[in-house]
Amino acid sequence: MAKAWFESILDENDIIKLDGVPFMKMLTLKTLFSASAFAVTAVWSNFSMSQSTSEITFHKDIEPILQRSCQNCHRAGGAGPMPLVSYEEVAPFAGLIEYKTGLRDRAGAMPPWYMEKNIGIQKYKDDPSLSDEEIAAISTWARGGTPKGDTADAPTPLVFDDSLKWRAGEPDLIVVMDDVEKLAGTADWWGEINSKPTGLKEDRYVKSVEVVEVNDINNQAGTGRDTVGGRYIFHHMIWATAQFNENEQRVPGLSIPWPVHEVGRNADIFDEDGGRLLKANSWIVSDSVHLHSNGQDTTGHLEIGFRFHDEDYKPRYQSSFNFLGNGVDISIAGNESGQELHAYAVLNQHTKVVTFEPHLHAPGERMCLEAIWGYTVETLSCVGYDHNWVRGYPYAEDSAPLLPKGTILHITGYMNNSETNPNVPDPRNWQGSGNRSVTNMFIDLGIRLSMTDEQFHEAMEERRQALNLGPNDHVIGCPLCGAPLVAPIAEEDEDGNEVAAND
After folding, report:
1. Tell me: the pLDDT tens digits for 11-38?
2. Structural domain of residue 148, as residue ranges?
3. What's the domain count of the chain?
4. Does residue 456 share a domain with residue 333?
5. Rounded (10°) CA dihedral 464, 470, 476, 478
6. What is this structure's pTM?
7. Residue 292: C-alpha distances to residues 160, 163, 229, 298, 361 (Å)
8. Any idea of the CA torsion for 443, 449, 453, 459, to the nearest 10 degrees?
9. Beta-strand (E) ranges in 157-232?
10. Residue 448 has pLDDT above 60, yes or no
11. CATH number of the domain residue 449 falls in
């Protein structure tokens, strides 16, 4: 049944069309179904046996999953190419939903959250990913005829307010950048866009920042072309806030970097104890903007929303801006998969890792972050990569790595520059370093905070209390949390003889 459905929507160029709109390029049917089957078979068989006496239905089992992880985008007015709210909207796409969720942590997977669940830290904020059981339930439902079930089992429908476009909450300050126009079929463009003053009259600490693209595309009608970002024209903007003189010229050396805006990116919510300073009279400056055509003439702009802490807020920790990776010596051979890139950095201060944010380009398939402390070598996170959905992964508060100074951070990038990677336009080409998508980056853009000795020991003690750790317990990402207490330093009497230290 699923195979027949897929065949019905494939044209001669292997383009899936959803209501006449090209949605995604596909592999061959044989490859597609092999990949889908491989992704779900391991858990599907066990799950199906346990559910043999209880039918999987849309209203009882599938609809709650869609509400939690899909409908925020897949709804009328959302960023998704089709709504997935009612049974009538969902059932025709059951096979596609099974395939996309079965990809799990690889490019193209839905929901777009690529954290690998078999290694490293597994507790993150705002994690929309599906469990093995949920993926198996979707597969069982899709292959079992998509039963609707009893409407009495349906959860209360979600109510969406499209006036609330800010996922992190309504900003205290919104800076609107100038409109730009990108014509259909024109080449990609890299450069800088006009700077804009924030209008802020006093220094304020920022609790979150979010960048959204506003354009004149009707995404429900489709763009007519499958491109990076689908309905968008901005792929990314590298930006900072800077001071300008009376002639509106940028003052050198007075810039503060902010998280890079990238298509599909989630909002950046800073650590409660590590708010970032937005200075009075600062300007938004772009150091690199990438625009691409989406298949139709489009006018759009970026809006930057800041949420502030209270006026008397002072950060407990200082931001650390030492990004890891992105050397000029990137070398990726043509027609070759399974290539690796490596980068290392020594932490000069005690560090709390707030987010992990892998950034690669088209050949990139995954990145792993490793911490090396003494004889301890542990993988903190491994994340699949999709250049169409560049995400930041914020660690849960009791899981954020607490790393002593001297720790070596190591990232490994896994590159596939072969015809098996659909994101690569021409795998025959060697690829080196550069800002453009046809060149490459290899960098962890995650947020990190530096700590004093006292702050580091306090944070570890808070972690011990929160997790109820014993003296020799071990948690990933905190190599000293379970270390035995250091013996008290012996004291000396008046004659210089050592005596036992007081408790």
Report:
1. 333 333 333 333 333 333 333 334 444 4
2. 2-153
3. 3
4. yes
5. 50
6. 0.81
7. 29, 26, 9, 10, 15
8. -110
9. 173-176, 180-182, 189-191, 196-197, 204-215
10. yes
11. 2.60.120.230
